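Lecture notes, continued. The same structure-token format from the folding unit now serves as the input rather than the output. Read the line below as a description of shape only.
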């Protein structure tokens, strides 16, 4: 009975960790759309009543604004401004740097070693994990996700010999974890490939 309750509690928590970020993203989008509605109301009145103009135009403006900001931060001046904002403001928000690295890995645009797929060698066997940080003395901080919800898990600080770096994209490792370990043979093959190269 206790195990069933623990299973239900952990499942509820795992679901919560998936639903809440999605809910917050939708909430922020709706809030942004609502703040734009007042600006576009005069234009919306010119369109036929059958067209949901306010909703459509506000969504369009938010998407275009995000696109313009994305293009702007790719310029030389934009990069400098983004770096200043990140160091002075955003990086003071707990978890921002880690989430930024995670989203960059998902987009395939990160050159950082944060969230580098690896195997953590425990006493029971190899656990799919991600490198979060490398110490100057060679130790690692690794995040071992729970299965099938990779957003929850445990963090370990361990010796280098217990961490086996994988030569696979972040998304491939994430897919294996979310599929209850299906595809682990490819991760093991990637580990063997790294070992043979470094040997």
């Amino acid at each position: 009975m206790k195990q069933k309750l623990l299973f239900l509690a952990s499942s509820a928590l795992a679901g919560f960790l998936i639903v809440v970020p999605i809910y917050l993203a939708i909430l922020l989008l709706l809030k942004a759309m609502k703040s734009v509605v007042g600006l576009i109301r005069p234009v919306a009145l010119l369109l036929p009543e059958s067209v949901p103009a306010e909703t459509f135009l506000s969504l369009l403006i938010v998407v275009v604004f995000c696109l313009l900001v994305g293009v702007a931060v790719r310029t030389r001046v934009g990069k400098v401004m983004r770096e200043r904002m990140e160091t002075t403001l955003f990086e003071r928000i707990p978890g921002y740097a880690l989430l930024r690295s995670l989203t960059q890995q998902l987009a395939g645009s990160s050159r950082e070693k944060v969230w580098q797929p690896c195997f953590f060698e425990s006493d029971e066997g190899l656990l799919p994990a991600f490198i979060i940080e490398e110490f100057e003395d060679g130790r690692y901080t690794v995040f071992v996700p729970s299965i099938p919800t990779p957003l929850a898990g445990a963090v370990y600080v361990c010796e280098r010999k217990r961490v086996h770096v994988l030569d696979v994209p972040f998304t491939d490792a994430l897919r294996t974890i979310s599929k209850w370990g299906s595809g682990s043979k490819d991760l093991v093959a990637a580990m063997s490939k790294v070992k043979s190269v470094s040997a």
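Point for the exam: The chain has a mean pLDDT of 73.
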